[in-house]
Amino acid sequence: AQTVTQSQPEMSVQEAETVTLSCTYDTSESDYYLFWYKQPPSRQMILVIRQEAYKQQNATENRFSVNFQKAAKSFSLKISDSQLGDAAMYFCAYAGGGADGLTFGKGTHLIIQP
Amino acid sequence: EAGVVQSPRYKIIEKKQPVAFWCNPISGHNTLYWYRQNLGQGPELLIRYENEEAVDDSQLPKDRFSAERLKGVDSTLKIQPAELGDSAVYLCASSLAQGPGLNTEAFFGQGTRLTVV
Known about the structure:
The complex is a heterodimer of chains A (about 110) and B (about 120).
Chain A: E1 3-5, E2 10-14, E3 19-21, E4 24-26, E5 32-39, E6 46-52, E7 60-61, E8 64-69, E9 74-79, E10 88-96, E11 103-104, E12 108-113
Parallel strand pairs in A: 2-12
Antiparallel strand pairs in A: 1-4, 3-9, 5-6, 5-10, 7-8, 8-9, 10-11, 10-12
Chain B: E1 5-7, E2 10-13, E3 19-24, E4 31-37, E5 44-50, E6 53-56, E7 65-68, E8 75-79, E9 88-95, E10 107-108, E11 112-116
Parallel strand pairs in B: 2-11
Antiparallel strand pairs in B: 1-3, 3-8, 4-5, 4-9, 5-6, 7-8, 9-10, 9-11
């Protein structure tokens, strides 16, 4: 079974600075997908960024980028120029190449200090 | 376009009572998921539907939980009878397609927060 580990229960960063959230996963599959979801207090999970395992290039979405290390099974999220609206729970998630649902980590609570 | 709609947003019931949650996925999305999110945890998959067929219900506690997706559109998740440990947020999600090489983005609803007292 696949597992996703987020070792940082909580992170705090000053507004406008950069923060990196860590995620590691375990799988025996070669074809899979990795995601970062944001969950604000409204509870709705919002996709921040996704990475296909077969792509060597790290995904980027505006201020959000990932560092995907396939051999190390590591998938960290970097948020540049942090904004107050970035404050939320962030979940790392894994999906296999077959018809699977998502396996989530336990989440990291991101606090933005004004 | 409307997103995934869930109701109710909140539900408080006494233990041993039944409860039902409703989900309306994004139009045209064939795949529908129900997740349970305990406090301080990430969501965990309960059941996945491909159209009206439940293709993965291995994590659904079948002694008290049931789900249906009539006509491959709306879905209902039921608990009967509810226990104190069922208190959680129940999230519904949908996606356009699933399958090898077709893993697409899952869109989530706002969830139902269930409190069993």
